[in-house]
């Protein structure tokens, strides 16, 4: 069912955004990852897999493979990365992934189709074309893929050759995403990622010639030396590249938690006002060019599946951000990868040696996670619908979960009153509706429903 708010272009209200700027989760999961504990073990994940197998119709599978290698560090990066120039590393890593799959696959009910496969990193194209082919063959021979499975990979134009595309096309990859961040040379220098516009354009052209129809690019605002004027040139360049989707992320500057971010001078970062000017400009340019604003940080062409998912209320959020594949069990392989199976989250060891040692010893490398309570599942759905639809039908959701929504969430609705008074949200006629001005503050709105927030709030990036 289409929500009333989905076509609304967000309004960048500087005073309100600065007023509500505070640390907050991005809600790629609820409860959020800082709540995972080491009391959750592989045994808990096994138990959940058994329970899912016993369901009348277990959900389809979504597979994620974390391929962590990169040649050099981008100073803004917040991913789990192994920096190396040793091009043989993927061979041993693939063997570990195969062992990990061989522990899990025999325990899954046979025939569960894979609806989605994603390779992220790190830099998946750090793998040579034959190494990628070997990994894909190993996956393909162990899982049954749905005919229309979405098969995606993150590529780095600095590390991608036409031969990579040949392999990806042969393996029927149908979604490519690539980091760009900003084309400005001074910004690229400051973040240690020199990626000329020509190189990126050639990569996209090659991808299209090889038959890839869906290309997504990632940009970041809030990087050192960015300004509205400099970023405007990047926006023009992006529109000339004509990607199908654009993700525009707010730079999460967390130098205390992410060591290599210390290489970024805090004084070189744009002010909050400048960041908002950049954001406002980007929203205006992309929507004027015909892209639709999706969720809190994506843009997509109107015929993109992401727009269709938002139209019919099936847009979903997972650890990779917004996705069109709701209702799958996510099995994640590789160092630091997080699975989401049934009502559990389980994360592999972030340390690559420990991860490899556990798998080598025939154990899953799960070191933390959690099992959701009924209340967590309910609140997850509330937060998910708000993050994806920007509106919520309280009686309908209450009926699904057997609760009186306004009564159950009375303190949360009360907490939203100041935001309602500021025009960010409207609570009336059984609905919660996020206003155009509230759209960019959706994290703040969702925080009202997060009953664990007090335990974790210090660990997040700021909402703006
Ligand atoms: S290439 Fe990607 S994963 Fe590697 S350091 Fe740069 S941003 Fe991080």
Describe the structure.
- With 464 residues, the chain is α/β, with parallel strands linked by helices.
- The chain folds into 2 domains: 1-31 and 373-464, Orthogonal Bundle (Arc Repressor Mutant, subunit A), CATH 1.10.10; 34-333, pyruvate-formate lyase- activating enzyme (Alpha-Beta Horseshoe), CATH 3.80.30.20.
- It contains 17 helices and 19 strands.
- It has helices at 14-20, 42-53, 89-104, 129-140, 162-170, 185-190, 197-209, 228-241, 272-288, 305-311, 352-360, 374-389, 394-401, 405-408, 410-421, 442-447, 453-456, and strands spanning 61-67, 69-70, 82-83, 113-121, 144-155, 175-181, 215-221, 245-250, 292-294, 298-300, 316-318, 321-323, 329-333, 338-341, 344-348, 366-371, 391-393, 425-428, 431-434.
- The chain is globular, with a radius of gyration of 22 Å.
- The structure holds iron/sulfur cluster.
- Residues 70, 73-74, 77, 79, 81, 121-123, 156, 179 line the site of iron/sulfur cluster.
